[in-house]
Design goal:
It is a single chain. The chain is mostly beta strands and about 270 residues long. The chain has a 19-stranded mixed barrel. The relative contact order is 0.15. About 5% of the residues lie in helices and about 60% in strands.
């Protein structure tokens, strides 16, 4: 199945970004309720500043109020009290999913659109502001054999702007991708290779404010990771499942030039 444009490089970047927690103590819980299969997720940052336990609550509600053609993908309250609502419906037409996003505060920030996937290995996604359809983003990805191609445009295209473009190639243990963004002035390249229990990945940024930035990382059996970036920061992560649904995630980072060390610990209960 074709991917979202922003996921074209995910095979490599997941090695660098997923399962790293190097700042503070955090508790995450997920509870599936008996009420229409709704799910409540809680994230609590322990002992952070003046607020002892700032937290974020996320609620997933299939078929709200028994309405079978709607799905609340996310109803979230973060530690600052800001709300986020994401809802969708996929029963209108085969392969078509209607979407709506809102902060439940400003009607001018309400976004609506659709995702269409019912044409071979192609995905088309369109989102716009409900009160200003000219403020939009549109993307499409197409998979052909082992390659996936992507194109993404926004409202700047109406004023002569250029689209973002990307391509990825996945064959067995080998993966690579290239994304061209910001009017084709910034390029991000990623490579990935898997051998037995090891996953190796590297990314490099050319152009823009992050020109020259890179990250190189290695993962072992998805529970131990280490990475290093252009700032000479070495980051290590270790995940341990005590039992089903009870997982510890610990991390340590050390910046060599600044001799600055940070650590964090996360407990997840699901």
């Amino acid at each position: 199945m074709a991917l979202k444009f922003d996921d074209l490089s995910k095979v490599a970047t997941s090695v660098h970004k997923d399962d790293f927690h190097t700042a503070g103590l955090q508790l995450k819980t997920k509870q599936k309720t008996s009420y229409q299969n709704s799910v409540l997720s809680t994230q609590v940052d322990l002992f952070q500043g003046a607020v002892a336990t700032p937290s974020k609550l996320t609620f997933v509600w299939p078929k709200p109020f028994g309405f079978k053609k709607a799905f609340i993908d996310k109803l979230e309250v973060d530690k600052a009290g800001k709300l986020t609502l994401e809802a969708s419906s996929s029963d209108v037409h085969p392969g078509l999913m209607l979407e709506l996003k809102s902060d439940l505060a400003d009607v001018n920030k309400v976004s609506t659109g659709f995702t269409y996937t019912d044409y071979k290995e192609t995905q088309v996604k369109f989102m716009c502001k409900a009160t200003d359809p000219k403020d939009f983003t549109c993307e499409t990805t197409y998979k052909k054999d082992k390659a996936t191609f992507g194109l993404k445009v926004n409202s700047s295209i109406l004023k002569g702007g250029l689209p973002d473009a990307g391509v990825r190639f996945l064959s067995g243990p080998l993966f690579c991708s290239v994304l061209a963004t910001k009017a084709l002035k910034e390029y991000n390249a990623s490579v990935f290779y898997k051998h037995d229990a090891f996953k190796c990945a590297a990314t490099y940024q050319h152009g823009g404010k992050e020109n020259g930035n890179f990250t190189v990382g290695v993962a072992y059996k998805d529970f131990a990771k280490v990475k290093v970036d252009q700032s000479q920061t070495v980051t290590c992560s270790y995940k341990h499942a005590v039992s089903k649904g009870f997982t510890f995630l610990g991390g340590l980072s050390y910046n060599v030039p600044k001799a600055d060390a940070k650590w964090g610990l996360q407990l997840s209960i699901a």
